[in-house]
Each structure stands twice: as structure tokens, then as C-alpha cells.
Write a structure and sequence with these properties.
single chain; about 210 residues; mainly beta; two-stranded antiparallel sheet; rod-shaped
Length: about 210
């Protein structure tokens, strides 16, 4: 009764055997020994050492080590978690499995439809990636498409253009004895004629003061 696997501890109490472990009777108690690379992770003797740690994605290399990658399927090879394949619409562009397939190639303008496929749009337009196709979005802040020609993009700098200051078509008006200017999208005085100055600091009167008098 102390050593018999068929009658361990008492008559008729046998130590069951498993394909993943060996069981023997030691001092009247059944003891399980896992086969190589098999581990008993669920602490259930009935199924022996159920986890094959060299190929089990939920116990890869040891109990409880789950192979999981963002937007990707995973596999366990020789006890190491490996990224298997990206989910549809995603790609591993930085070749770093730690963050999985980190790029959505359907929406990322720097990787539109594939890694390192940037969206190229006319000047000063916002690049967009819609369902893996590059399209031009709105003008970048401070720029406008004042000639309504999509081919040259948003060609006008609304921050310094006296003909379209702040918005398209906002022409800074001529001023007495002064050159108008557009500064940060606001009309102002650029420079005074020689011998004149803006002493009242009023835009609309221009450079109203003749310094010689």
C-alpha cells in the first residue's frame, strides 16, 4: 500500500496515469511527475500536466503567460510568444512586436494602405486617409484656397497677405501716407511715407502726422 500504484494507501485506490505525466505511489500517496515541457497549470490531477509550455498560447514558457498582441494573432513557439499575423486593416510598421500591429492602414495618413505609404496632397492641405485611400482635407491653419484651384492647394497665407488678410478676399485698404500690411491675419500699417508718422495710433487715419510741421 505504500508503493503500489494500483493500491496506493488502500486497496483498490489506484493512481491514474496521464499521457502528460507519470504517477507513482510514494508513502501511500499518489505523486505526479510532469513529462518534459508539460506543466500542471490548473492544479487538476485528473488531466495531468495539461499545459505544453513550448506551444500553449495561454501558458507560453510558464503557467499564466498569455501570448497576446494588439490587433494581431499570436503563437507560442519554443516557449516564446511570437506575433503571427496582423488583423485585416492593421500593420506592424515599426517591426516591434511588443506593440503588435500598431498602425491602422485604413486611417493613418503616414501609412495609408500600407507601411510607409504617405498621403501626398497639394500644398498646405491636410492629408487624410479614408479606407486606405488618400484624400485632401481642409486647409492648414493660416492658409486659404483663395483662387479656388484645387491643383495648387491652399496657396494663400492668410496671416500676411494684404489682399486676403485673415480670410480670402479681405483686402487691406490703402491708407493715407502709408503702406498697409497684414500681420497675423489683421490689417495694419506697414510703413509710413518719408516725413510722415502715425502719431494717433489709429489704423484708418494712416500716417497722419507730417513730422516737418
Amino acid at each position: 500500500l505504500q508503493t503500489s500504484a494500483e493500491h496506493c494507501g488502500s486497496c483498490g485506490f489506484g493512481c491514474s496515469f496521464s499521457a502528460t505525466a507519470t504517477l507513482e505511489c510514494v508513502a501511500g500517496e499518489c505523486q505526479m511527475t510532469c513529462l518534459e515541457n508539460q506543466v500542471d497549470c490548473n492544479a487538476v490531477a485528473a488531466d495531468g500536466c495539461e499545459a505544453y509550455i513550448l506551444g500553449d498560447r495561454t501558458n507560453c514558457g510558464g503557467c499564466g503567460i498569455v501570448c497576446i498582441f494588439a490587433n494581431a494573432t499570436a503563437q507560442c513557439v519554443d516557449g516564446d510568444c511570437l506575433l503571427d499575423a496582423c488583423e485585416t486593416g492593421f500593420a506592424d510598421c515599426d517591426q516591434d512586436p511588443a506593440n503588435g500591429c500598431e498602425i491602422n492602414i485604413g486611417t493613418d495618413p503616414e501609412h495609408c494602405s500600407g507601411c510607409d505609404v504617405p498621403c501626398v496632397v497639394p500644398d498646405n492641405l491636410t492629408p487624410l486617409c479614408l479606407a486606405g485611400t488618400c484624400v485632401a482635407g481642409d486647409c492648414l491653419p493660416g492658409f486659404g484656397d483663395c483662387d479656388n484651384d484645387g491643383a495648387n492647394g491652399c496657396e494663400t497665407n492668410l496671416l500676411d497677405d494684404v489682399g486676403s488678410c485673415g480670410v480670402c478676399g479681405n483686402d487691406c485698404p490703402p491708407l493715407p501716407h502709408a503702406q498697409p500690411a497684414c500681420d497675423a491675419g489683421i490689417c495694419g500699417i506697414g510703413s509710413c511715407e518719408q516725413g510722415w508718422d502715425d502719431c494717433d495710433t489709429s489704423l484708418w487715419s494712416g500716417c497722419e502726422t507730417e513730422l516737418a510741421t
